[in-house]
Design brief:
Helix content is 32%, strand content 18%. With 330 residues, it is an alpha/beta fold. The chain is globular, with a radius of gyration of 19 Å. Bound molecules: S-adenosylmethionine.
Length: 330
């Protein structure tokens, strides 16, 4: 029997280390750029179970993946999330357990998440103005998110990262206010270029798109020239800071400055598909592997195949996609 590789390396020599697990396609927010509300995103058939996630993390760790990020939909809608995290934390080789969340349920659930081994948190916040926030999220209450941010700082979950997708006509007037969150507290505000992952019409997408360069210019106009902070070249964000501020400003520019060359990610969707690239529709159906007599070994084969099928670059240009962001997992 050939020896199993101990690293997951794709055809282009990229080493895959980061796992993103979408534990549900449901969300209590309906951000237009993510969830166009074409249906109510019921839990799909074959939704990942705690055992599925455990098997997948174990298979991944045997192939050298060492970081697991839980996302969705809104991952805190899954009551079993802490158990999933704890299992991942106890998997040999896994060093980092992270969560991407809209923060609305963080205060209610933070104790069980910390006990389960949560290391890091990214909280999405697209506006500070309550009515702009409500509009951007389809009814959200920004005070809950601000409270989650305060709590994450109190709990020393550093680095506390905030994600804002910049959309012209929705939250462009809020970007400077969001940047100011980095001035007096160690908050890392990251501005993400809008990717065409909501099947919006082309004209609306093009009109709403704001490049990282344009966002930075808007911020520099108000807050002065930003200092660049040296970062790990494999990180998707270019990081800057307002001089003497306690936090930082990251620019994640998947469209204007794609970072596919340094991609180290593999995704698992809530309906048991392995997705090698966020921006490419190709997915591998892992149902048979999950249900097999030896799921860990079968999932290793799926992961090797998925790495082999990872494209050099994602489909950056707008196109109709099989699924929108909320169902893929961000
Ligand atoms: N519900 C969680 C949250 O709000 O963070 C996790 C899932 S959400 C899909 C993960 C991240 O993807 C969020 O920061 C969101 O802003 C980002 N996102 C969603 N749609 C996007 C798009 N079309 N372009 C860029 N980023 C997007």
């Amino acid at each position: 029997m050939p020896e199993r590789p101990t690293e997951l390396i794709d055809r282009f020599g990229r080493v895959i280390r980061d796992l993103r697990i979408s534990v549900t396609p449901r969300c209590n927010y309906h951000c237009t750029y993510c969830d166009p509300l074409t249906d109510s995103h019921p839990e799909p058939r074959g939704t990942l179970s705690v055992q599925d996630v455990d098997n997948f993390v174990k298979a991944s760790a045997l192939l050298g993946l060492d970081a697991a990020r839980f996302t969705g939909g809104e991952p805190l809608l899954r009551k079993e999330l802490p158990q999933m995290m704890e299992n991942a934390k106890n998997t040999p080789g896994v060093k980092d357990i992270a969560l991407t969340t809209n923060g609305t349920m963080f205060r209610r659930r933070h104790k069980e998440l910390l006990e389960a081994g949560l290391n890091r948190i990214n909280i999405s916040i697209d506006a500070l103005n309550p009515s702009i926030f409500r509009q951007a999220t389809g009814g959200g209450d920004v005070t809950q998110v601000l409270d989650a941010i305060d709590l994450a700082l109190e709990l020393n979950l550093h680095p506390v990262k905030l994600n804002a997708v910049a959309i012209r006509g929705i939250n462009d007037t809020e970007l400077v206010h969001l940047a100011k969150l980095s001035l007096e507290r160690p908050l890392h505000v990251r501005f993400i270029e809008y990717m065409h992952l909501n099947n919006s019409d082309l004209e609306s997408y093009n009109n709403a798109f704001l490049s990282g360069k344009a966002i930075r210019a808007m911020i520099e106009q108000e807050l002065g020239v930003l200092e660049e902070v040296p970062t790990d070249p494999s990180s998707p964000a270019r990081v800057f800071k307002v001089p003497n501020s306690l936090g930082s400003l990251g620019f994640i520019n998947p469209i204007s400055e794609p970072f596919c060359g340094a991609c180290s990610r593999m995704r698992l969707t809530a309906d048991r598909k392995v997705r090698p690239c966020l921006l490419t529709d190709r997915e591998l159906d892992a149902n048979a592997a999950f249900d097999s007599a030896n799921p860990i070994e079968a999932l290793i084969d799926v992961l090797l195949e998925a790495a082999h099928r990872k494209d050099r670059m994602g489909d950056l240009l707008p196109k109709i996609r099989e699924r929108t962001m909320v169902a893929i997992g961000g």
